[in-house]
């Protein structure tokens, strides 16, 4: 190539040259440690904006100070050093959502943890979102059956409700949540289980149990394990909620379980103290109430104009020595629509699920029950409350009048009926059958120690011989005089065979 050709080529390149301007908002790390970075030079950063530290490490801006930005780092902060460049992305933190997350175990950033390949979706939702406004909601009046007799009969949960599960460690809080997920099989409900600071061995057991029961076909697990940084523990519930909101916006019913929010509060306290936010009661930051209220308010039942979907939240809180008047428990109790209180004493007495029916309440009440359950369980809570009072009183004296003896006998049998094994959720028609027998005194001549055997036998007998009756209760959702007569007949027939076997 001669000199003239080279000059012509250069002229052509100059003629075709178009300057492309690319602007980037760049800052520098001034301080880093414990999953927190201080950055100077990002004067236009937004709260909750994603920041790019390079090497596929991202952070979230939380503190916007006059001369610096305080950010939490999502990932291995050990790779970041003072003086590193940080870029603004202009995007609020978001997670992948959609059908692709169902059946998967992901971290709070939507990255897979189950070794089954990438999450293939092009839909993303922001982790922080304003809760649905009053005008978009409708009353909670559709039951969300948990399959647990004590809950469905006395502390009913409706679609779109927020029901707190609270109790000491090892009292069966997670067991209730997992049973509720298993019971959604065939109910057209999508389930999201958010594990916050849990042991990964425990989550592995839960995953196995859900898989064995066919529940992973409609369930996603968001896992921020005990060894993960505090930033991921803080974000996990918001990420799980965003994944659920996608389905709610599509008009579907969603159940989200946050297990547990006390660990999220501790992680948030750690981040806040490292960011030098002023501490308040029990060293929690002043906005720890807002942390949980803005999360739980996103649970709602939308009206038909907005798609009619619902998001039901079951937050879990762990208490210390049954103290429900501590800071975080009282906060979350005041946000939710009722609580299921689990007691260590009941658990050790063998009453499982160990639900204290006196302290447990559902503020939606019987609006979230089918009519058949209202008919049989309407007076059950009162009977149990009277039984507890009388049982405590009866310890001191033996000469009780007939009415008191009758009340104690009924209460003892109801207590037996409400006992239920783990991973054994019961369809609502079967619950109605056994509760009808107990509440109407049809078990009075069955010895207390034989009540569980009687119940198991009655359900087997009803499924084998009168399946049509159970189907009719499930379909009509009410006890008409004809159905009630059939229920009495089935119980009477089984009692004869039970008495012979006995």
TrEMBL record:
Residues 23-90 form the ATPase F1/V1/A1 complex alpha/beta subunit N-terminal domain. ATP binds at residues 167-174. GO terms for molecular function: ADP binding; ATP binding; proton-transporting ATP synthase activity, rotational mechanism. It is found in: Cell membrane; Membrane. It is an enzyme of class 7 (translocase). GO terms for cellular component: plasma membrane; proton-transporting ATP synthase complex. It holds the Pfam family ATP-synt_ab. It catalyses: ATP + H2O + 4 H(+)(in) = ADP + phosphate + 5 H(+)(out). SUPFAM superfamilies: C-terminal domain of alpha and beta subunits of F1 ATP synthase, N-terminal domain of alpha and beta subunits of F1 ATP synthase, P-loop containing nucleoside triphosphate hydrolases. Its main location: membrane. Residues 369-493 form the ATP synthase alpha subunit C-terminal domain. Residues 147-362 form the ATPase F1/V1/A1 complex alpha/beta subunit nucleotide-binding domain. Keywords: ATP synthesis, ATP-binding, Cell membrane, CF(1), Hydrogen ion transport, Ion transport, Membrane, Nucleotide-binding, Translocase, Transport. Signal peptide: none annotated. Belongs to the ATPase alpha/beta chains family. HAMAP family: ATP_synth_alpha_bact. This is ATP synthase subunit alpha. The gene is atpA.
């Amino acid at each position: 190539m001669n000199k003239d050709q080279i000059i012509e080529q250069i002229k052509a390149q100059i003629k075709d040259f178009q300057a492309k301007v690319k602007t980037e908002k760049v800052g520098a790390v001034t301080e880093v440690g414990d999953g927190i970075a201080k950055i100077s030079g990002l004067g236009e950063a937004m709260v909750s904006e994603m920041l790019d530290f390079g090497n596929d490490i991202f952070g979230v801006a939380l503190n916007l100070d006059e001369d610096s930005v305080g950010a939490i780092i999502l990932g291995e902060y050990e790779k970041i050093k003072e003086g590193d460049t940080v870029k603004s992305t202009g995007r609020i933190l978001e997670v992948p959502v959609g059908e692709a997350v169902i059946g998967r175990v992901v971290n709070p950033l939507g990255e897979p943890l189950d070794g089954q390949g990438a999450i293939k979706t092009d839909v993303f939702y922001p982790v922080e979102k304003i809760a649905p406004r009053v005008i978009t909601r409708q009353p909670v009046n559709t039951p969300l059956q948990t399959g647990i007799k004590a809950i469905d009969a006395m502390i009913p949960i409706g679609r779109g409700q927020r029901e707190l599960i609270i109790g000491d460690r090892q009292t069966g809080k997670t067991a209730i949540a997992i049973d509720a997920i298993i019971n959604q099989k065939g109910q057209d409900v999508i389930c999201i289980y958010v594990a916050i600071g849990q042991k990964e061995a425990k989550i592995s057991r839960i995953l196995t149990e859900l898989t064995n029961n066919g529940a992973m076909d409609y369930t996603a697990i968001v896992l921020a394990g005990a060894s993960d940084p505090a930033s991921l523990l803080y974000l996990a519930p918001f990420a799980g909620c965003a994944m659920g909101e996608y389905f709610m916006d599509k008009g579907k019913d969603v159940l989200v379980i946050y297990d547990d929010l006390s660990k999220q509060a501790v992680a948030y306290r750690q981040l806040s103290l490292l960011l030098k936010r002023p501490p308040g009661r029990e060293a929690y930051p002043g906005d720890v109430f807002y942390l949980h209220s803005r999360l739980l308010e996103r649970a709602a039942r939308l009206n038909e104009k907005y798609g009619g979907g619902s998001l039901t939240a079951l937050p879990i809180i762990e208490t210390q020595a049954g103290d429900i008047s501590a800071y975080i428990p009282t906060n979350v109790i005041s946000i939710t629509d009722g609580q299921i209180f689990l007691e260590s004493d009941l658990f050790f007495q063998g009453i499982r699920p160990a639900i204290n029916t006196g302290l447990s309440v559902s503020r939606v009440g019987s609006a979230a029950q089918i009519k058949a359950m209202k008919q049989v369980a309407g007076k059950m809570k009162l009977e149990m409350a009277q039984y507890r009072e009388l049982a405590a009183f009866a310890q001191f004296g033996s000469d009780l009048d007939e009415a008191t003896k009758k009340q104690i006998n009924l209460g003892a049998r109801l207590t037996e009926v409400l006992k239920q094994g783990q991973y054994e959720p019961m369809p609502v028609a079967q619950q109605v059958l056994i509760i009808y027998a107990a509440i109407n005194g049809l078990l009075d001549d069955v010895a207390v120690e034989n009540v569980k055997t009687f119940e198991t036998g009655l359900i087997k007998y009803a499924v084998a011989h009168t399946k049509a009756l159970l189907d009719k209760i499930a379909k009509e959702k009410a006890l008409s005089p004809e159905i009630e007569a059939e229920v009495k007949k089935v119980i009477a027939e089984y009692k004869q065979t039970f008495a012979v076997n006995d």
